[in-house]
Amino acid sequence: LELDTFGGEVGAALKISDLLMKTKIPKTVAFVKTKAISAGALIALSCKEIVMMPHAKIGDCEPIIQTDKGIEFGAEKFKTMLRAVFRDFHYPDAIGEKMVDKEIELYEIEVEDGAIRFITDTDLENLKRSGKEPTKLKLVLGKGKLLTATAEEAVHYQLARRIVQDRAELLAHYGWSEADTVHVDPTWSEDISRWLTSPAISGILLLAGLVCVYVAMNHPGLGVPELLAVACFAVLFGGKYMAGLAESWEILLFVLAL
pTM for this structure? Predict the structure, then answer.
C-alpha cells in the first residue's frame, strides 16, 4: 500500500485497518512515501511491515472532533479504543500508544540480552513495583507531546523495517517487479462525488436549496424556484449517495419532510 496522507475520518480508517488485519494475504507492506499521519499511521501499522522513504513521517494519531467552536481533541473514550487497536498490531505497544495519547510518557530501556525495548510510564511503575526497575533508562518523549517519527526514528522505534530511496528499490527488496503492481485510480464518478461532498460545495447546495424553498413558499406558482430547489437537493444527496455517505432511507426521510 503506497501511502501519502494526512489522515481522515476515524471510522473509515478503522474499517480499512480491520480489512488489513483480517486479510489472508501473507505479507502486507505499507510504503510511506512522504507522510502517514493520523488515520494514515493507523492504516500503515495495520500492515505486517512498514517501509519508508528518507524524508517520510509517521505518527500523530490523537483523535480530533470538528465542532461549531472549532477543532477539539477527542475524549478519553475515543483514545482508549484507539490505544487498544494499536496494542493489537505487530509493533511496540508503547510507540503506538504515544501516537494516540500525549499524556503518556515514553521510555527506552535496555533489557538483559542488550535489546532495546520501549515502555510507557505505567509500564515503568509496574516494573518498579515488581522489583525489576531497569538500570539503563532513557526518556524518549514526555507528556504533552504526540509521537511523530522520521524515517530513521521509525526504524529505531521498531516501526519501519527499512528505508528505501524509491519504489523501485522497495520492489527489488521484496523480489517484485513493476508488473506485479496494481494501480487503483479514482473513477470519474468518484472524483465528482468527492467534489460534490466537499464541505464548501455541500454548503452552497444546501443554502441555495433552502433559499429556493423560501422563495417558492413566498411566491407560489412560479415553478422555477421549486425546480431549482429539487435540483439542488438532488445533487446534494446524489453526491453523498454515490460516495456512500447517505442511505436511501435517509433521502426518503428528507423527501417526506421528516
Answer: 0.75
